[in-house]
Amino acid sequence: MSTTPSPGPTAVPAPLSAGEPDAATLARAAEQTAVTVLTAATPHRLADVVPAPQQVQPDPTADWVLPAEAVIVVSADPAALAVAEHLAELLRPATGYPLPVADASGPGPVGGIALVLDEAADLGAEGYRLDVTPDEVRLTAVTATGLFHGVQTLRQLLPAAIESPTPVAERWALPGGTITDAPRFPYRGAMLDVARHFFAVEDVLRVIDHLARYKLNHLHLHLTDDQGWRIAVDSWPRLTTVGGATEVGGGPGGHYTKADYARIVSHAAARHITVVPEIDLPGHTNAALVAYPELAPDKTAPPPYTGTEVGFSYVDPADERTYDFIADVLGEVAALTPGPWLHIGGDEAFKVTGEVYTGFVERVQRIVSDLGKTVVGWHQLAPAAHLDGRVLQWWGTTSADPTTVEAVRQGARLILSPGNHAYLDMKYAPDSPIGHDWAGLIDVRKAYDWDPGTHVADVPAEAVLGVEAPLWTESVTSLADIEFLLLPRLPAIAELGWSSRATHDWDDFRDRLARQGPRWATAGITFHRAPEIPWPITPTIPTQRDTPQTDTAAR
Ligand code: TNX
User: Would you say the CB of residue 308 lies under 6 angstroms from ligand 1?
Assistant: First the structure.
């Protein structure tokens, strides 16, 4: 399976007569023209940020221009220093400026950028303030996380050419004024299903970068399912050697070694993103049963599964060996995972019902809590007994559910992923080349027009931990496919998680979102040119595509 974006359909060039430029030269010229056109967008307003900031006070007299000799000055703190380096790395390729990073004890900013940690600032754990004046740009936050989110805002306020991987001649101006910003919900995430199709570490790292742009702070990895087991477990090695060797459609699958997983966790951590690993139990376990038939109810290995049905497989809830297996697996995954969460799935276990199901879940919840982690699971866990801190992920398509409401009354918190608004694997429109439609079509407006705070009747906003946009990958085979489904809907879900309800306004969102298009095009990121968004111009960058790649089309 190809996991790097292919250049899209290439026509065989007509033979050129002598003296005419060759095809490669023409292509380079076309690309350069496209970048120039795309980046010559209208000047920015301070409010042109996704997700919408809490407070924006423009000062049209106070624009700032990045000088070539600017220094990035930062409070003497290792985490803040890492954010400053991250900012420098974002700005160096397009500007070509050296942008040295110095701690606050060093030389003062030369019309540069200051990143300031201020414990006394009233900005919360993730908030920041951005002050743009002609002399200096100053980001202030209580934490390095706040500074990191502020850096993403700063980046969006620079001209779109800042996304260019190579130097561009540009006036690097920021609109003057002050932004004061903080999130509405503490949990803002996306899920990537690496089980139905396996994706290389590099692809996951790139998805993490997309999350960071929109101030999402959790990456949920759906690591196991019927079609493949993707995370190495030393005590049960056949999970990956046997269970990892399949995927939907019969491809070779794959798995992450512990070192691979550690790379993902650390790339995420450097972007202030927490990884939430999911081991889906008791259903969605065919790959585990192929590897270890002793876990199967009939102690017989089922055939490997590469289709897309759900709900047929389960580990034997009546066998103690199953709980040894779960304790070993969750123990090893917990040890690899610095974040507080362990997601135990729990969805679509159609053959484990009633008290057998709740009894199973209650045992697994205790295993998680004994490991010092917090339980997350799909909202099917609701009927199992409450356990302190547990979090249910709502993927229903209705707006009421008495069982979930009762679990919340007992103390569960909710992550909102309504299938008919937040599922990134749903098609945009009937003619979307990939995706599902069982929860309906989800265009950008549908992804944006709902309120996580009131979505499930009788669940108070205080019980809502946040939002998450899941991407299931039955029909997704490449990084370009992932990006096509993610963008532009991921920013819509990100805005619901970050921005206060007072900023919710479709027309305004649509205009702000439109300005992200040239950024993606310049960075070579695939996106769906959704017709309801007024993209500044027709992107003509070669990586743009609205049709599936050949590997998808062939299926
Ligand atoms: C339902 S939603 C599932 C997944 C599928 C998805 C496809 C949920 C918790 N389970 O197993 O991949 O639908 O959209």
Answer: no
* Coil vs helix vs strand at 73: strand
The answer to whether 209 and 191 have CB atoms below 8 angstroms apart is no
> How far apart are the C-alpha atoms of 208 and 222, rounded to whole Å?
14
- Distance from CA of residue 9 to its chain's centroid? 28
| Residue 59, ligand 1, Cβ within 6 A | no
Provide the token pair at 505: 């306004």
Q: Which of 451, 436, 444, 442 is nearest to 492 (CA)?
A: 444
For residue 225, give the ligand 1 atom closest to its CA.
11
How far, in Å, CA of 530 to CA of 489, rounded? 9
Residue among 215, 56, 55, 77 at smallest CA distance from 142: 77
**Which atom of ligand 1 lies closest to the CA of 417?**
2
* Ligand 1 mean position, distance from CA 352 (Å): 17
Average pLDDT per block of 10 residues along the chain, 555 residues long: 34 36 49 47 82 98 95 96 98 97 74 93 98 96 98 98 96 97 98 98 98 99 98 98 98 98 98 99 98 98 98 98 98 98 98 98 98 98 98 97 98 98 98 98 98 97 98 98 98 98 98 97 97 78 39 32
Residue owning tokens 């399976």: 1
8 Å CB contact between 272 and 338: no
Q: Is the CB of 436 under 6 A from ligand 1?
A: yes
Q: Which token pair is 276? A: 């939430």
Nearest-CA residue for atom 2 of ligand 1: 395
Residue whose pair of structure tokens reads 């009788």 in the numeric block: 458
Specify whether the CB–CB gap between 489 and 441 falls below 8 A: no
At residue 377's C-alpha, the angle toward residues 239 and 483, to 5°, is 75
Active site residues: 348
CA of 434 to the centre of ligand 1 (A): 15
Ligand 1 centre to CA of 473 (Å) is 9
Nearest-atom number in ligand 1 for the CA of 474 is 12
Q: Is 378 in the pocket of ligand 1 (CB under 6 A)?
A: yes
Which atom, in ligand 1's list, is nearest to the CA of 393? 9
Q: Which residue, among 84, 75, 62, 45, has the nearest Cα to 136 in the 3D structure?
A: 62
Contact present, 163 and 519 (Cβ < 8 Å): yes
